[in-house]
User: Fold Transposase DDE domain-containing protein from Desulfofustis glycolicus DSM 9705.
Amino acid sequence: ALTIAQLYRSRWQIELFFKWIKQHLRIKSFFGTSENAVKSQIWIAVSVYVLVAIMKKQFDLQESLYTILQILSVNVFEKVPFYQLVTERDYNQETRCPNKQLNLFD
Assistant:
């Protein structure tokens, strides 16, 4: 009975892990239909998860993995150090990158 409980607990952790990947890494559908395409997309998602978890631990961040991923996805092409992105989120966005869109309401 103890072995079955341990197997169930391990299986449940795997289920939660894939649920997190589907929710936070946004794997809603696969880009390809071949086995290689599906495996590649899953391995990329797992790699991103592990890298973000390592960065969270290394920088001792209080933000959730989801929040860190959101910050990174918005600033993926910015030349801003990672630690600055996750610690200085309240800075004025307009001073960094002026908005070129006209205001509809003043």
In short: Residues 67 and 87 are 12 Å apart (CA to CA). The chain has a mean pLDDT of 81. The chain has one domain: 2-88.
